[in-house]
Protein backbone atom coordinates (compact mmCIF):
# COMPACT_ATOMS: atom_id res chain seq x y z
CA UNK A 1 0.00 0.00 0.00
CA UNK A 2 1.25 3.47 -0.92
CA UNK A 3 1.14 6.43 1.48
CA UNK A 4 0.11 9.93 0.36
CA UNK A 5 -0.44 13.21 2.19
CA UNK A 6 -2.91 15.93 1.32
CA UNK A 7 -0.71 19.03 0.83
CA UNK A 8 -2.37 20.80 3.78
CA UNK A 9 -1.86 17.75 6.02
CA UNK A 10 1.83 17.85 5.14
CA UNK A 11 1.96 21.52 6.17
CA UNK A 12 0.17 20.67 9.43
CA UNK A 13 2.79 18.03 10.15
CA UNK A 14 5.72 20.37 9.46
CA UNK A 15 4.21 23.20 11.50
CA UNK A 16 3.39 20.99 14.49
CA UNK A 17 6.88 19.45 14.50
CA UNK A 18 8.46 22.93 14.30
CA UNK A 19 6.23 24.17 17.13
CA UNK A 20 7.25 21.31 19.41
CA UNK A 21 10.92 21.66 18.49
CA UNK A 22 10.87 25.37 19.40
CA UNK A 23 9.41 24.53 22.80
CA UNK A 24 11.86 21.77 23.73
CA UNK A 25 14.87 20.59 21.73
CA UNK A 26 14.18 17.09 20.41
CA UNK A 27 10.43 17.23 21.02
CA UNK A 28 9.73 17.89 17.35
CA UNK A 29 11.69 14.76 16.48
CA UNK A 30 9.69 12.76 19.03
CA UNK A 31 6.49 14.11 17.48
CA UNK A 32 7.71 12.99 14.04
CA UNK A 33 8.53 9.54 15.42
CA UNK A 34 5.01 9.27 16.89
CA UNK A 35 3.49 10.18 13.51
CA UNK A 36 5.71 7.62 11.74
CA UNK A 37 4.77 4.94 14.29
CA UNK A 38 1.07 5.64 13.65
CA UNK A 39 1.59 5.57 9.88
CA UNK A 40 3.43 2.25 10.09
CA UNK A 41 0.53 0.81 12.10
CA UNK A 42 -2.02 2.13 9.59
CA UNK A 43 -0.10 0.79 6.61
CA UNK A 44 0.00 -2.64 8.24
CA UNK A 45 -3.63 -2.51 9.44
CA UNK A 46 -5.48 0.20 7.48
CA UNK A 47 -8.91 -0.64 8.91
CA UNK A 48 -7.79 -0.04 12.51
CA UNK A 49 -8.96 3.60 12.57
CA UNK A 50 -12.39 4.66 13.75
CA UNK A 51 -14.86 5.49 10.96
CA UNK A 52 -15.57 9.22 10.78
CA UNK A 53 -17.92 8.83 7.83
CA UNK A 54 -18.29 6.51 4.84
CA UNK A 55 -14.95 7.61 3.33
CA UNK A 56 -12.77 8.67 6.27
CA UNK A 57 -11.18 7.04 9.29
CA UNK A 58 -9.42 8.54 12.31
CA UNK A 59 -6.44 7.23 14.28
CA UNK A 60 -5.07 9.01 17.35
CA UNK A 61 -1.35 9.38 17.96
CA UNK A 62 -0.03 7.66 21.05
CA UNK A 63 1.88 10.47 22.75
CA UNK A 64 0.67 13.73 21.25
CA UNK A 65 -2.85 15.21 21.08
CA UNK A 66 -3.26 14.75 17.33
CA UNK A 67 -5.25 12.42 15.11
CA UNK A 68 -4.58 11.28 11.57
CA UNK A 69 -7.71 11.49 9.46
CA UNK A 70 -7.28 9.36 6.37
CA UNK A 71 -9.00 7.82 3.39
CA UNK A 72 -8.41 4.43 1.84
CA UNK A 73 -8.46 3.11 -1.67
CA UNK A 74 -7.33 -0.37 -2.70
CA UNK A 75 -3.69 0.72 -3.08
CA UNK A 76 -3.41 4.12 -1.30
CA UNK A 77 -3.69 5.31 2.28
CA UNK A 78 -4.05 9.10 2.03
CA UNK A 79 -3.63 11.28 5.12
CA UNK A 80 -6.15 14.05 4.64
CA UNK A 81 -5.61 15.84 7.96
CA UNK A 82 -3.26 15.90 10.93
CA UNK A 83 -5.72 17.40 13.39
CA UNK A 84 -5.10 18.62 16.92
CA UNK A 85 -7.68 16.85 19.07
CA UNK A 86 -8.92 19.93 20.91
CA UNK A 87 -8.61 22.78 18.44
CA UNK A 88 -11.23 23.85 15.92
CA UNK A 89 -13.20 20.62 15.60
CA UNK A 90 -13.78 19.56 12.01
CA UNK A 91 -12.17 22.71 10.55
CA UNK A 92 -10.85 20.43 7.83
CA UNK A 93 -14.22 19.29 6.43
CA UNK A 94 -14.11 21.85 3.61
CA UNK A 95 -10.77 20.54 2.30
CA UNK A 96 -11.97 16.99 1.66
CA UNK A 97 -12.77 16.41 -2.01
CA UNK A 98 -16.14 14.70 -2.28
Structure characterization notes:
By secondary structure, the protein is an alpha+beta fold. It has one domain (2-87): YaeB-like fold, CATH 3.30.2310. Helix content is 36%, strand content 28%. The protein contains two helices and five strands; from the N terminus they run E-H-H-E-E-E-E. It has helices at residues 7-23, 27-44; strands at 2-5, 50-51, 56-60, 66-72, 76-84. It has a five-stranded mixed beta sheet. The radius of gyration is 13 Å and the shape is globular. The chain starts with a strand and ends in a 14-residue tail after the last strand. The relative contact order is 0.20.
SS summary, helix count: 2
CATH topology: YaeB-like fold
Report the β-strand fraction as a percent range. 25-35%
Q: How many DSSP-defined strands?
A: 5
**Distance between the terminal alpha carbons, to the nearest Å?**
22 Å
- Averaging pLDDT over every residue, what do you get? 93
Strands side by side in the biggest sheet: 1-5-4-3-2
Residue share in helices?
A: 25-40%
Tally of separate domains: 1
- Tell me, what is the CATH class? Alpha Beta
Radius of gyration: 13 Å
Order of helices and strands: EHHEEEE
Spatial shape: globular
What's the architecture, going by CATH?
2-Layer Sandwich
Question: What summary fits the major beta sheet?
Answer: 5 strands, mixed
Structural class: alpha+beta
CATH homology superfamily:
RelE-like
Unreliable stretches (pLDDT < 50, length at least 5) are none
Amino acid sequence: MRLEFHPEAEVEFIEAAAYYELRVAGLGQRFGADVRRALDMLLAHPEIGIAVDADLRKYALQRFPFSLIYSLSPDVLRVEVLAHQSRRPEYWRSRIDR
